[in-house]
Amino acid sequence: MRKSGGDWPQDRPLVLAAEGTHGPVIHDVNPAAAALGMARGGRITDMRALVPDLAVEDADPDADTADLARLAGWAQRWCPWTQADGADALLLDTTGSAHLHGGEASMLGDMARRFASAGLNIHLAAAPTVGAAWALSHSGGDAHTICHADQLADMLAPLPVGTLRLDAETVQLLRRLGLKTIGALAAVPRPALVRRFRKVEQTCRNPVTRLDQAMGRRAEPLVPARQRPPLRSIRRLAEPLGDLAGLMRILQDLAADLSVLMDENHIGARSLRYTAFRVDGRALNAEVATSRASRDPAHMVRLFDGKLDRLDPGFGVDGAALEVLRAEPLGAIQDDLSGEGRDQMAFVALIDRLSARLGEDAVFQSVTLGSHVPERGEAFFAAAATPHPDARSVNRQGRAPLRLLNTPERAEVVHAVPEGPPARFRWRRQLHDVARAQGPERIAPEWWREPGRTRLRDYYRVEDREGRRFWLYREGLASDDRGGTPRWFVHGLDA
Amino acid sequence: MNVDRIKAIHLLESNDNFIRGAEVRPAESTADSTPIAAIDSHAPLLPGSPRLAELFAPPRDAGAIGFALAQVPQRGGLLWVQDRMSALETGRPYGHAFARFGLARDRLVLACARNAADVLWTMEEGLKCASLSAIIGEVWGEPRALDFTATKRLALRAERQGVHVMLMRFGGAANLSAARRRWRVGSLPSAPHPFDGAAPGAPRWRAELFRARGERPGIWTASYDEAAHRLHLHTASGDGSLDAEVRRRLAAG
Q1: Yes or no: is domain B46-186 CATH 1.10.1660.10?
Q2: Is it the case that residue A39 has pLDDT exceeding 90?
Q3: CB contact residues (below 8 A), chain B span 15-44, against chain A
Q4: Cβ–Cβ gap A468/B61 under 8 Å
Q5: What is the CB neighbour count within 10 angstroms for residue A155?
Q6: Do A403 and B92 touch (CB under 8 A)?
Q7: Which fold, A2-59?
Q8: In chain A, whose CA is at the least distance from the CA of B82?
Q9: Among A148, A216, A457, B138, which is least packed by CB within 10 angstroms?
Q10: What is the reported pLDDT for B31?
Q11: Considering only residues 393 to 422 of chain A, which have any Cβ-Cβ distance to chain B shorter than 8 Å?
């Protein structure tokens, strides 16, 4: 399928130019230019030298892509499964819908007629597989080729290997191997072919995969771009609103509308955006996220508590929308008799409200991980997205302090040399006499995570004369040859 | 007459302990010569009915946290809120130690607030949730947001909702507050370790109830009974002066 140049006279050469590595190159040509021997990839300067009155226009690939996507949507008049393929092809899965248009031949005729009336000339082919249809439609010829399952091998055999949707390099390689047609390729013993290309993973470089796809030995489903309506509710206001209380009231209405919409689709929102449109052409946004899919209007409204204060209505707001940014499937919820489900929901709602006000990264749940190093043995994850605990998590069985300092803090320690328990230590400029101590609990460095010179830690539980308890560790041994004198740190406080 | 009364109280105490079957520890004579006094039957029952309690703790002593955790019910969620200074100065809660108090780590939700106002907001928000059984909030110093009205709101809601709310005050002075129980909690030298004389044993706290509604204030030695998940208050007989003070108050009351 190629754009036919609009109002441009058919007999005058026209090329579209795109930026190449060494100046502009031809992106596409019209039939008159093609007749002069111009082809894609040629240098514009060379072509100008050959044809001085050549007309050159800039190519606009983005617009082409958009047009093709639009055409793919339009082609759904023939069948529900359509897909844009590459820069210039459409794939239609007409299985089960050809008879609605009077059989395949009549359907192809209808397609050709309609595309022609839209000013587009197309090559059409119908085949049992995507690969075969692509090969037949791209091998030239204006006839509407229809290929049935029993003719597949025969019809594909004379076509060049390039029509198997392989990249230029692979095509050249196959040519060098003397395999110029699909028939020749299919005639090669399969084990030899598989062995030659067994390490090639990309489909467009692997002739075996492509051949299997064309012959129907490997499935190749179509992925149509399904257009889902955006999940949002909009209110337009007759009079501009200037106060925040009004915005809140609209939000309540919008949440109710959106909840109905989500209920119909059996989904719940994980992330929402409230947009207020100001009369002076600005939009105000507020976003919230939930830790679990929800479509409870009251809950959605509560999440925006405190967020709307930051919006400035200015001269007034004349419209507002509430949009679901991220959704998850959510079936109907029924309360169980014990009320546990409701409790769980209340708990989740609490986490959402806290995250909305304090910030996503301020509400945590504790997860144990597989490490004996205290700060790695437990991690706090944002409660909105807590992962499951590590299957190999370390259980310290209560042999840990109640509080862990964010970073271990240096302490000056008097202790029996070389490796005795602390007798007195100074932490945060205050001296503590150790009355009782227990330890050491030795934690070896994790060589698979840390650099090789990391030192081990000897943890001591100590109690000072007043009964205050601390968790101290000595980093390394004097004799471990990984740095100077071992240093001491206070890592935790205990009760 | 005073002496007779004290004797009577002693009799009552021993009887009471006998009837309740509470564990009266024998006076350890080995490492620590401090005798453990009988459980004080006049002391308030902990944790008692859900209410707002305020715990004052010195800044570098985590004893009050243990004292608070010992009163957290073993079922239901626990919301823990810290303001920024508390987290910086005393660290964050370490879930691995929760097992010592019979609490499950996965019930904990930790919220880090910027300031005291956010801590109070979070605690109030937590009081709207039906599935929490306790809320612990930590506030550093004496912020302006923490006034009588704020504590009154927390106290009323805690009682209505049936949630234990504990407000930890690190390095703060006891200003006006509507908390139903106000404690000053500090660490005491721990009980002797059963197997190792040189090691710290089960924690003990000096708990001073200096203001309470409907209960008699006093000073006790608190210890935690892990098997029963209970906090016991013993008459503070380890310190002669404390003991005398308690008895004076008891006699006066």
Answers
A1: no
A2: no
A3: none
A4: yes
A5: 19
A6: yes
A7: MutS, DNA mismatch repair protein, domain I (3.40.1170)
A8: A362
A9: A148
A10: 40
A11: 395-406
